[in-house]
Amino acid sequence: MMNSARRVYETPELMSLIFGHMERRDLRRLLTLKQSFFPSVAALIWQSVHYDIVKATLDLWNPRGRIYVHAIREVIVTDPTLDSDPTTQFALISALLDDFPNLRTATRRLEYLPHLTISSWKSTFDNLWKMNVESIKTGSIEEGTSENWIVVHLRTEWVFEPETDLDQLEPPVCESGEYWIEHYIDVVLDSPPERPGFGFGFLTGFNEADRHEVAISQYINYLTDPDRRHARICSFDAGSNPFALSDLARLIRYRHPGHLDITKVRATDIDSFTIETFETFCQWAGDGGKGENLEVLHLDQRGYSIFDLLSFSRALKAIVEHFPNLVSIEIPISISITTQGRRSDLVPVTEIGVVQAEEITRRLTKLRHFTISVYGGGLGARHVDRYAFPVDTIAKNLAIVVAPAPAPKGEEKCRFGIKNRTSVFLGYNVSKQLDDAVHEIHRSTEHSAPVTAHADDPPSYRRTR
Fold first, then answer.
1. Core-most of 172, 252, 263, 277, by most CB within 10 Å?
2. Is residue 282 part of a domain?
């Protein structure tokens, strides 16, 4: 009886399901176990609980069932339908603290799905908000007195529009009381107006677009002015606005005492993405170690002027040298190549180089996502309907610069993926092929010489199938 009951109690989701199908008057029959056994199991098993199960425990009227409420120490909120407004977030945190007297931590985050091979911008924000109850010593060492402080981390999204008065922006005020509130501000640029075709409203449309470009220049000036910029800004999303890599570098390298660094950047319409401009961007943004705090770098260019597969190894070396702590990367690349005096053609897969271990001084040890947006094979190129994407060669490059590391059971440390933006067939399930190929290389080196020997590399790669 005890062993069977323990197995049930060790599965909170199962207990929640059982309670949901029982009449309340019958719950006491389920909870009539040995008096000393139930509280000890509840306190051990129900320390960390998901929010949907938490809501079920609050509906338990039976006094024995209320033991769950006092046992819960951590609540994890993953419901994507909840309002992300900071005021609403704070109201939920306050309600959780009222309902669970022994709560120490509450977090709202996006669940990491191990089957996803393509990252998204929102998935890089692990914690949308977080609350910790911390004990702070208030008396002398001899007295040993302490006081509980409730530290709340709230994320706020600011959408910059041409009519926005940037100097008047402030995070929402929350009634704090005994709370210590830390705001984290994510800047998002409003989508640009579309350029109309010839006809009525033609000049008006261009005036609006020009006004938007002037506004973007004002945004950059605000974000790089220590006297105006809000100290809690920490991420930047240019969206589909045309943006220069040089301006993006200015935002990344910005430093001022008391101000947060920008750790996440996204721009999906970079004006020029040649290998030379990209290497210059990496060097300038990461000069003097200023790129070490960058965690997310999502770039795209819509395929008009980007480097090709022949430059892929050069791009990787620039990334790992200047942004060693990246967690998520997205970059565009072309399968087409244009030589002087010739039309565009497809990149010969046999000419693609591989990074050598001695060419890099460190590796990416924290990476979780690496996504390549593939362009090319369009106008001006020799007409083809398929291209044998060089999965093995690209995988060899990635296996060199991304360090293998332990991962939770059933998950990989990093996921590699491909977004096919072309009209050309690149291969069946090519994204999964790339992911499998990189991890296969890591596994094959587990019991042999490491790819490159660096003292700061994590332990050897392991995965449970």
1. 252
2. yes
